[in-house]
Design goal:
By secondary structure, the protein is α+β, with helices and mostly antiparallel strands. It is 47% helix and 17% strand.
């Protein structure tokens, strides 16, 4: 097909594509469409496949032209977007091209049309001036080891029911039924939850009612009124007053095992003594520390690069990210996106308001991804098979498994591609840290290092 194309850049990484198709191709396409009509048309007085073309044009003229135009548009766009030379001008997968107006076809003329769509943003990162990354200083000692050993004890504890007349205490495992109630005392639709289990004192419950259930007995129901601070980190609760009806249905307590060789052997057959377990814990904490410190460094770096190299992202890209977050939230609540929205409405919120609250953070994350992608391409960063082999060895050493096990995990093509992309990012950061200033940050406790991720 002979055609001409013109790309015009618009705001927020949108593109207007104008296509003009040669008159001969228009005529050929029209005749091809006529041929299909002749082959399939059934009109009284004519055998199938023998209806004269002029009869079909009089009867189905508008339809023939519409089918021809649609076919020409599809073929021309497929040809343009499949061309590797135009990969930067391809529409985002979630941004379908929108046509300004449907073109009118004249078999004796060229056919022109325009579509508008979003493309992947292109940003040239030039400004590194004043970029300083602070690296948290974290030491791992006996306190951190003892905290981890306590966690191991808790994971291997024997859980038993408390007596019916015993009360809920801190660190007990409780099972509750709850629901929100309105000012009229009636249950709010969509807020009811049964058999919810959490450990008192962890805060691992929606309404943060740990202190409120302490002292309750099995079978007891309590009406709780909670007033949340305006700056509460949960946007759904901030500044609100909630009334919750809670019924305790079970209370359990953990009996912790002794810290000895038997516990180590129960944790894994690879441990013969408690010292073996301690050494592995220290190693795992060191691996986790290094990973988290690197995450904080890269987040700090990207935050500054986003600020110093401003650009806009397509509205469709942000919307797709927000939709993805909504889907993930529904999965976390073990419900459907539609049911989640009903639950949110029942609690006095709106889906639109929540998405708006997420927008700034999501936009920042998307811009960070785009900057990383563009820097990797601009610097032609690639990885060799030898570097991937070294990455296999590092992962195996960090995880205490064999290289063969790591390779088996990444045998899937998509998993292998993820590893390659991740390795490219690490190479990029190592390059950038040589070009900017990296200083020692504040001393940070191991546990606090991970609280920053919450």
């Amino acid at each position: 097909m002979k055609l001409t194309k013109e790309f015009t850049s618009l705001e927020k990484s949108a593109v207007k594509l104008t296509v003009t198709i040669a008159q001969k191709d228009v005529a050929d396409a029209y005749n091809e469409t006529i041929g299909k009509y002749v082959k399939d048309a059934q009109i009284p007085g004519f055998r199938k496949g023998h209806v004269p073309a002029n009869i079909l044009e009089r009867k189905f003229g508008d339809g023939i032209k519409a089918d021809t135009v649609s076919s020409l548009i599809d073929k021309s766009l497929n040809e343009i977007f499949s061309d590797d030379a135009e990969k930067d001008n391809r529409p985002l997968p979630y941004a379908q091209p929108v046509m300004d107006k449907m073109p009118e076809m004249d078999i004796g003329k060229e056919l022109s049309f325009s579509v508008t769509y979003d493309v992947f943003p292109s940003v040239e990162v030039k400004n590194f001036s004043g970029v300083t990354v602070k690296e948290p200083q974290v030491e791992i000692g006996d306190k951190e080891l003892q905290d981890e050993l306590k966690a191991v004890q808790e994971r291997n504890a024997v859980v038993i029911d408390k007596k019916d007349d015993e009360k809920v205490e801190k660190d007990n495992i409780v099972t509750i039924n709850y629901s929100e109630t309105g000012d009229d005392g009636k249950e709010i639709d969509g807020s009811k939850r049964q058999d919810f289990v959490f450990t008192v004192g962890t805060g691992d419950n929606i309404y943060k009612i740990d202190d409120d259930v302490i002292g309750m007995k099995k079978g007891e129901t309590k009406e709780i009124t909670k007033k949340y601070a305006k700056d509460d980190k949960d946007a759904e609760l901030a500044g609100k007053i909630k009334k919750i009806s809670v019924t305790v249905t079970a209370i359990k307590v953990r009996n912790l095992p002794a810290l000895d060789d038997d516990l180590a052997q129960d944790v894994s057959e690879k441990y013969k003594t408690l010292d073996d377990l301690k050494k592995d814990i220290m190693k795992n904490m060191e691996v986790a520390k290094n990973k988290r410190v690197n995450e904080l460094k890269s987040n700090d770096l990207l935050t500054q690069l986003v600020e110093k190299n401003p650009f806009e992202i397509p509205a469709s890209m942000l919307q797709a990210e927000l939709d993805g977050r909504w889907q993930m939230m529904a999965q976390q609540f073990q419900t459907t996106p539609e049911q989640l929205e009903r639950m949110i409405i029942a609690s006095g919120q709106k889906k639109e308001d929540m998405l708006k609250q997420w927008s700034a953070e999501s936009e920042k994350m998307l811009k960070s991804r785009i900057i990383v992608d563009n820097l990797i391409r601009a610097r032609n960063i690639s990885v060799t098979p030898e570097e991937i082999e070294e990455e296999y060895k590092r992962i195996a050493d960090d995880g205490g498994i064999t290289v063969e096990e790591v390779k088996k995990h990444y045998a899937d093509a998509r998993a292998k591609e993820y590893l390659i992309d991740d390795t490219k990012e690490h190479k990029l950061y190592n390059e950038l840290y040589k070009e900017i200033k990296v200083t020692k940050g504040a001393k940070t406790a191991f546990a606090d290092l991970f609280k920053q991720a919450e």
